[in-house]
């Protein structure tokens, strides 16, 4: 999955979701010379902070983060933050399908559906539409989002069935996350550098690596 000239699309509802959930995998794909694109579906600011200027700032942070991870491009859907569950499903579908049509990804990463954040669930559902059989996508994976997946009331919780060794990428992931200056929280908050390292270490302990990221394989066509 890493290498073989894959085109990879990592989808996040908000700026920083991509690095929280799959930053190590992004860096690993980039190191393997895969072409990695990131799609941020919402503008990620106005509903939470009531400051439109933060939209521009967060886009700058997203580009800095992507550069540190080695991604080749960042795409922005610009949909309303924290209101994706109120938007017509077809509009979110179209946002994702448009980027898929432009880059023709082989591998797609998206949110888990076992989430407390309704924006994340909406993105998950629309990703499955955009990557349905016949789309040309060979692999679809969902990732966990610290401070959201772990807060879900779903009793089953996030149940990963694939682990990726990011022992060589963990410091790159932390450095990339630090680009999001407005999103960093103090430990023990899950969105802190210390917590991200601890989560990766725990996932590694579950899979025989020093550090790992965990994913749920939603679809794989071979």
Automatic annotation (TrEMBL):
GO terms for molecular function: hydrolase activity, acting on carbon-nitrogen (but not peptide) bonds, in linear amides. It holds the Pfam family PIG-L. PANTHER family: N-ACETYLGLUCOSAMINYL-PHOSPHATIDYLINOSITOL DE-N-ACETYLASE, N-ACETYLGLUCOSAMINYL-PHOSPHATIDYLINOSITOL DE-N-ACETYLASE-RELATED. This is PIG-L family deacetylase. It comes from Natrinema salsiterrestre.
């Amino acid at each position: 999955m890493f290498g073989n000239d894959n085109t990879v699309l990592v989808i996040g509802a908000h700026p920083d979701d991509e690095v929280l959930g799959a930053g190590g995998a992004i860096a690993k794909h980039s190191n393997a010379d895969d072409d990695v694109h990131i799609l941020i579906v919402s503008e990620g600011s106005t509903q939470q902070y009531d400051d439109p200027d933060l939209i521009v700032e967060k886009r700058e942070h997203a580009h800095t983060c992507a550069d540190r991870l080695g991604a080749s491009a960042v795409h922005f859907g610009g949909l309303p933050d924290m209101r994706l569950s109120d938007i017509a499903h077809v509009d979110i579908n179209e946002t994702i399908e448009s980027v898929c049509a432009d880059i023709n990804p082989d591998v797609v990463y998206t949110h888990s559906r076992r989430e407390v954040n309704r924006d994340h669930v909406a993105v998950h559902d629309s990703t499955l539409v955009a990557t349905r059989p016949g789309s040309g996508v060979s692999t679809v994976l969902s990732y966990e989002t610290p401070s959201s997946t772990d807060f879900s009331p779903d009793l089953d919780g996030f149940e990963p069935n694939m682990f990726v060794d990011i022992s060589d990428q963990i410091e790159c992931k932390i450095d990339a996350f630090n680009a999001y200056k407005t999103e960093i929280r103090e430990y023990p908050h899950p969105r802190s550098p210390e917590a991200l390292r601890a989560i990766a270490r725990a996932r590694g302990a579950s899979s025989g690596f020093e550090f790992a990221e965990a994913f749920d394989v939603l679809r794989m066509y071979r």
